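Support case: user asked for a sample of complex input and structure output to validate their parser. Sending the pair below.
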Amino acid sequence: MTIAVKVVRRPERNVSYLRASLKGMALTFRHLFRKKVTMQYPEETKEDEWSISSRWRGTHRMLTDEQGRAKCVACGLCPQICPANCIKLVPGEDEEGHRYPLIYEIDEFRCVFCGYCQEVCPEEAIHVGVHYENAEFQRERFVYDLERLCAQTHPVSSLWDPADPRGE
Amino acid sequence: MTPELKGFLLLAAIKVVVGFGGLLLAVALVTWLERRQAGFHQDRLGPNRVGPKGLFQPIADGIKNFIKEELVPADADKFLFLIAPALVFTPALLLFAVIPFAAPLPVSFDFELPVVGRFVHDGVMPMMVADLPVGLLFVLAISSIGVYGIVLAGWASNSKYSFLGGLRSSAQMVSYEVALGLSVISVFILAGDVTLSGIVENQQQKLWYVFPLALGFALFVVSALAETNRLPFDLPEAESELVFGYHTEYSAMKFAMFFLGEYAALITMAALMATLFFGGWDIPFTTWDESEPSLLKTALTFGAFATKTVFFVFMYIWIRWSLPRFRYDQLMALGWKVLLPAALSYLMLLSGAIWALEQLGIEQGPLYGFILCIVNLPAIYALFWVIDSGRLVFGQRLQRRTMN
């Protein structure tokens, strides 16, 4: 099979490059007076006009139960599936046999924000969040411990659902 | 030294400092204007954080450039590498020396200082750094030196991108200098004078040269764009193909020198357009500015000159953010096959018309200008017809040849 080359015939008559250039100049001139689309970010956020997707996968959040304890049961699935190996989990067990995390730390620098931890969690405890303002002054602050994960309040990601690919 | 000579030297020194200081300030403002206007053309705001409306952005840029590391590539020719930015920067600044930026100012003083003695000056001071008798020829000569800086920068960097940029610029700037020089000759013919002060005076008394020399102005604008390496002729830089061409390997202040040189050349070319074709510091529709020199007159005429220059700078930037870059063969074809013959035949046409007018005994004045203006119209039409039917881009003609 030969490769099809599409030959675009240039217009022969009634085409003036000069006029086209002048038209382009007129267009750019009109744009000088258009409304500017810039959002002056830190000062104005324009929440009503612009928001990030509910499928955004940002920094994590641990959901808690009614007593304020983390929902996590330290099953170990999230560190198992984590492709970046950024979750550190040390499980513990109380007298009644309930498992809970003794240590649960997520290194947000190692994290690739794939959202697998949320997907795999049987208790719907760990989530990736719809959140993007994460600046810190110290590097160590980017290792989120359990207390900090529980204290996050931002909305959680709805992830991508293969059954509903366009999120409708 | 006589007190008069000392007075003259003092004034000259002041003019040098004020003139070049002002030019450098203008360069800083134009870098701001370029980025801001580019933003506006693209529906965004541009730099607006440093100072009111971002006006102090050039200062921030300057500080950044001063504290950055100076890098010299390993196998670069050190001496040429270091001297190249200066060779671009200096001529660009020097050009401004012969441009009259306001009406002459009456200055008279007579004072005595302890060690250096008595200073005397009495009379009018031309508001230009140096009123050279060779005037515009100086501009053409000095602007050619700028090419060396770019070529040497490309050669000395020992980088293929820089080298290509240098090669391109040498060919481009030499080609377009021809058209630039020829388009300026039309001004000489009409003015009968090569000093810029003389040209301005002539336009002030009669009429702006843009009317009788419309085609010359068009040729001058195109060649000036090419001479200053601005889009659509920025092939020596060509950031998308040559990663900024000749200044790829430059950093910190050496890079900033190229940058400043480019914008100084831009301002100078804009000022030249205003001076040669738009009456320089002449205020239109008034005869008041031909009266006796005074401080008010100098100030107002400087305002007129600045307005015209800023308009042309605006036009430069507007063109840059509207038109795409030429291909290299198109650039060469436009320079040698269109602009050069056009400039030559225009000169012949113009000299013929002026000769005929003199034979008819018509004095330089409104009628004279009107007739020349009429002569220009078919010439402009013919040039644009040739450009368009020959396809400035030469794409169609080539394609037809290859397809058949």
